Amino acid sequence: MNPLVSADWLAENLDDPQLVILDASIKTKLVKTPPISTTLRIPGARFFDLKGAFSDKESNLPNTLPSTEAFTAGVRELGINQDSKIVVYDNFGVYSSPRVWWMFKAMGHAEVAVLDGGLKAWVENEYICEWIEDQNINPGNFEGKLQPSLMKDATYIKEHLDDNNIAIIDARSEGRFKGMAPEPRAGLKGGHIPNSLNLPWAQVIKDGQFLSKEELKTLFDSFNINDKTLVFTCGSGLSACIILLASELISGQPKAIYDGSWSEWGQESKDYPVHQ
């Protein structure tokens, strides 16, 4: 599957028996525009509990990827099979859905895509919605297989701070990146990982959808990173997946997420180097 599909594509494929639609909507104060709806869903969509069942409960960090076993068990409960074609959306347009796309990729499932524009695009194209209500779902046979190359930890980041073959790209706002705006989570320093670059996630999105490939290429080319391995970071590993997906739309470069992100690196109790 292409990593990004349109509302028209989804409508045309809605009756595909292998298709599973996941609603990855979350509550957040980091998106300025309100969600288009919190009571409607695309017909048949199943709720992917990103902040609950699909975050590592043993971690003190938000949003971190759960174990392969926990991820597999949760996905099976959603009725997802090895041969399922998955489309993920959220009710902001594009915000939390790329995180779920990346999680399936990290667990070895290739047939997954994000709905460009999310529920907003679906509604604006006048496609039918249904009320959110409980569902009876038969368990699936999904089997996760972790792809270690798609995620990095703090040790890797420390070892590659001065590696010219690696580009660390931070999706937080410029104010947070430069330490001029407060972090939304307590106990975190201001600033950024040394030698990292800043590409606020909102710069790759317009009206709830990704920029065109031509616009994305121009944006990424401005960083002169075409020959590097890309490691994406943010506040908690969520919006980093937005700019990773944007990069995936135009480039086959090796890419990974620093899953701990600033929630780990920026802790006041840590001695990781910080620049402002």
Strand content: 15-25%
The major beta sheet can be summarized as:
5 strands, parallel
Task: Work out the number of β strands.
Answer: 14
* CATH C-level name of the largest domain: Alpha Beta
CATH topology of the largest domain: Oxidized Rhodanese, domain 1
CATH architecture of the largest domain: 3-Layer(aba) Sandwich
Secondary-structure element series: EHEEEHEHEHEEHEHEEEHEHEH
Through-space gap between termini: 40 Å
**pLDDT averaged residue by residue:** 97
Per the principal axes of the C-alpha atoms, what is the gross shape? globular
**What number of structural domains do the residues give?**
2
Computed over alpha carbons, the radius of gyration is: 18 Å
As laid out across the biggest beta sheet, the strand order is: 1-6-5-2-4
Notes on the protein architecture:
The chain has helices spanning 7-12, 68-77, 97-106, 118-124, 154-159, 174-177, 213-221, 240-248, 261-265; strands spanning 4-5, 19-23, 40-41, 46-47, 85-89, 112-115, 130-131, 151-152, 166-170, 197-198, 205-206, 209-210, 229-233, 255-258. The mean pLDDT is 97. The chain has two domains: 4-146, Oxidized Rhodanese, domain 1; 149-265, 3-Layer(aba) Sandwich (Oxidized Rhodanese, domain 1), CATH 3.40.250.10. It has nine helices and 14 strands. Strand 11 and strand 12 (209-210) form a beta hairpin. The longest helix is centred in the N-terminal third of the chain and has 10 residues, at 68-77. The strands form four sheets. A five-stranded parallel beta sheet has the order 1-6-5-2-4. It has a five-stranded parallel beta sheet with strand order 8-14-13-9-10. Helix 3 packs across helix 8 (240-248). The chain is 24% helix and 16% strand. With 276 residues, it is of the alpha/beta class.
